[in-house]
Amino acid sequence: MTQPATARTGTADHSTAATGGAAGRTYEVRTHGCQMNVHDSERLAGLLESAGYVDVASIPAATRPAVADVVVFNTCAVRENADNKLYGNLGQLRPAKTANPDLQIAVGGCMAQKDRDTIVRRAPWVDVVFGTHNIGSLPALLDRARHNKRAEVEILEALETFPSTLPTRRDSAYAAWVSISVGCNNTCTYCIVPALRGKEADRRPGDILAEARALVGEGVLEITLLGQNVNTYGVEFGDRFAFGKLLRACGDIDGLERVRFTSPHPAAFTSDVIDAMAQTPNVMPSLHMPLQSGSDRVLREMKRSYRSDRFLAIIEEVRGKIPDAAITTDIIVGFPGETDADFEDTLRVVERARFAGAFTFQYSIRPGTPAATMPDQVPKHVVQERFDRLVALQDEICWADNRGFEGRTVEVLVAPGEGRKDAATERMSGRARDNRLVHFAVPPAARERGEVPRPGDVATVQVTYGAPHHLVADGALSGGPYAVRRTRGGDAWEATQDNPVPGRPTVSLGLPGMGAPPRGTDAASPGCR
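User: That's the sequence. What structure does it adopt?
Assistant: Structure tokens below.
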């Protein structure tokens, strides 16, 4: 058991030098939450390996320990069950900590930023707590906790170093996240993220493009530009058109085949971004546009600075300029004060928008947000009934939309692990250009000729069935189109098969830069136009 925590709020120590205590110790990073957390976990893995730790997954199964020497939880705080999940997982590790006092448990991410030293009071067997602004401190905090025999809590109130400067161990050899900003300047009344991630901080365009080019040089075919609100990118250096320029500049990177981004905000989504999407061939025809509610009254209470007509106008403009775009969304059901009429408004917008998919959530109270203390919290049984109706409607729309793909040919970037039943069905899986999940068959003759795509290769296949949440493409089994294009991404994946964890690249160094360009320089250079 660790001694009482020492809380620190000073400058973070970003040292990643290996120490005698770290060398050879195994680690595991467990990730909960959004894409930002997934990318942060790649950085945590890079930091730990740079400091001498070893991924427990690289140990042969026969000799792999049941629990790594260091277990890191990268947490989410968006929903109420995030608290329950974290403390439940920590409780499951308590017997292992009791049996092995040298086991170290670290908690980072949004829950750590929110709960701080509360975590070590509720779970005193935790060794390290670090926040969203100082993930680079993890190796030093582990060393300090091990040396001092007490818990270390270090939470910073603002970002000092953009996390893309940190070493990274990517999950994929052929696809990568690229952060363009962190933080959020919005004040949505249900959301705790701005309080935990801070105000928006933008990277320089040239740094983003340099990272994208470096990734392409390593075999990456697809990047996803990442931010809490990507289309306000440029607010720090005064260019409201910076995101559209950035998309166009990505189109000039040789070898970069697919560009995606997440997530935009409807209030700041402008025609120049839609034009950039439509006119830049490697920007994929997929768009995630969070609706949250179709009721103008509820949107006002949420402090979402758009209304349903504006939202539907964006959808119409996107489909007018990018007819094959697949548009997905987020919707919250049961926001405080939501009436039957408000919910019917949401159903009407969903029917008109015809989303290709929706992430639907039941509202949950987050302490510290304005919505948590609003009157007229909606009873659970009412929320559940509305939620079920919304899911049924969206499933019906998805199914009808996907059935329209039957007989069509799609281009799939092959991925490992996308299809849980691939081994049983003898199919492979991946994502179409519009980000639909596709499970496809490889014809026996092609297998005999060795025309089986690797992860990172591109397969052209014919859709035979559209299910509500995926496409099945077995056309090749009856003489339909089937082609495989071997790519640099597939080569990169193949080159990782001898790595300690097959399929995962080794650590790459981060790239510098954060904030406004130096005075006297063009905010959009180099490469943006």
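The two ends are 57 Å apart (CA to CA).
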